[in-house]
Design brief:
four-stranded mixed sheet, 18 helices, 444 residues
């Protein structure tokens, strides 16, 4: 699950001229020409076709063979040729393949915040008309994350959220009350900081750890809780970088303070946060549901509560994951759409339902089967299910939708790291804003 928020290689380098790939052409164009404007629909009867699908997931290691077997059982006339490439190569492979305009792949995995960049390159198909009857199937945040300027450019197959995990033994030792799983009694960041200090004073190696340290996916909730924007406004969310507002500066001041005050360790990266919690070294950790399978197997006496918020702000949580997008040059849009609909809509979403590892569905119906998995069987697991269901329906926010997202994520990651290591938040954010103005200049 963590793979979805790692920094990936840039899809759009600085200085690349953004232009829609190819020119629109009327229905009936021949193979190799842009098929984006052809009229098509999702047929009631399956065609006989072979579609090519590109993903970062592997058939055996990630269980995609079982997912495809389930699809083929229901749609035997549609053959899926599945290709997997390493996560950090997905964008570059996609760039080369779609720009060739030969329709390979027909369908591909797209990280939601990168959809704006893909759309600007002319690499997505507007699916609004074809999938409009099914939009009620998905959580609101998943629809927003799969849309660009109001048009559906992908269909969501998974979602994510954040929870507050805690070590009961460390809190008991410090005399700290457990945070609540009641939405009306959500703990604040201010209270959590105070409780984390008590835990450290009582001997906990770590008081409070944000599992995705220095990563925008998780940290976006801090300024947005205080009323800030996701980071930019204006046309295309490129002007101006909105990261020097009072909400951003104040929230990043709090972020820096948890390291300065010794509540969170400066030398621990995102890859080490889960092992430390599982080893009983951390009192509080904010992390996604993907921690639950490891907790189920661990010896940690753990509990779970709602994601915190600032006392002068509002509750918000990170969301978003992967969508499936369609190559605009695909010659097999109908068959591709049947596959996409099955993965995202049918019976709660075939992808999340048939994946062997619990994957939070973007599909509302699919969450019922997701919550029936064994990781939610314990008392704390049931609390986690209740929290996940509530947060995905009520507090989820999407990451910044902009053609300059890749650069934004990279610049902000450096700023977060500087703040964590002691830089003045206001100065670090002003520096980042200046960098964004430069790297975004080619897009304006």
């Amino acid at each position: 699950m963590q793979r979805r928020i790692r920094l990936a290689s840039s899809l759009l380098g600085v200085g690349i001229l953004l232009a829609t790939a190819g020119c629109s052409s009327p229905a009936g164009t021949t193979q190799g020409e842009n098929q984006a404007d052809q009229e098509w629909s999702i047929p009631e009867k399956d065609p006989t076709a072979t579609i090519k699908v590109l993903s970062h997931l592997q058939l055996e290691k990630n269980g995609m063979q079982g997912v495809l077997d389930a699809f083929n059982k229901e749609h035997p006339s549609i053959k899926v040729e599945f290709e997997s490439v390493p996560f950090d190569q997905l964008n570059s492979v996609l760039e080369a393949r779609v720009s060739a305009k030969d329709g390979n792949p027909d369908v591909y995995w797209a990280d939601m915040p990168r959809l704006a960049a893909l759309t600007a390159r002319g690499y997505t198909t507007d699916l609004t008309k074809q999938f409009e009857p099914y939009t009620d199937s998905w959580d609101k945040a998943s629809i927003e994350g799969s849309s660009v300027e109001g048009k559906l450019e992908g269909v969501p197959i998974a979602n994510s959220t954040q929870l507050l995990f805690y070590n009961k033994d460390l809190l008991d030792k410090a005399g700290v009350a457990y945070p609540s799983d009641d939405a009306e009694k959500r703990v604040t960041w201010e209270k959590l900081s105070s409780d984390a200090k008590k835990a450290v004073d009582a001997g906990a190696p770590n008081g409070l750890v944000l599992g995705q340290v220095d990563r925008y996916y998780q940290l976006e909730a801090l300024p947005v809780s205080l009323g800030g924007s996701p980071g930019a406004t204006g046309g295309g969310n490129l002007t101006p970088p909105d990261i020097t507002s009072e909400a951003w500066v104040k929230s990043m001041g709090w972020y820096g303070s948890i390291f300065k005050d010794g509540l969170s360790p400066r030398g621990v990266g995102a890859e080490q946060s889960d092992p430390d919690f599982l080893a009983g070294k951390t009192a509080f950790q904010v992390q996604g549901p993907w921690l639950l399978p490891a907790l189920q197997k661990s010896k940690v006496n753990w509990g779970v509560a709602l994601h915190p918020y600032f006392e002068d702000g509002k509750p918000v949580t990170a969301s978003g994951s992967w969508a499936l997008s369609m190559n605009p040059f695909s010659q097999k849009k109908e068959a591709a759409a049947i596959f996409m609909k099955w993965m995202s809509v049918d019976n709660g979403g075939g992808y999340a339902i048939n994946a062997p590892t619990p994957e939070l569905p973007a599909n509302v119906e699919g969450k019922d089967e997701y919550f029936a998995r064994s990781v939610f069987a314990s008392e704390e697991g049931k609390k986690a299910a209740k929290i996940i269901d509530y947060e995905t329906a009520n507090t989820g926010i999407t990451r910044l939708s902009t053609v300059g997202y890749v650069e934004f994520e990279e610049v902000m990651g450096r700023a977060f790291s500087d703040i964590r290591n002691g830089s003045d938040p206001k100065a670090a954010l002003e520096t980042a804003a200046g960098q964004l103005n430069k790297v975004w200049a080619p897009y304006k």
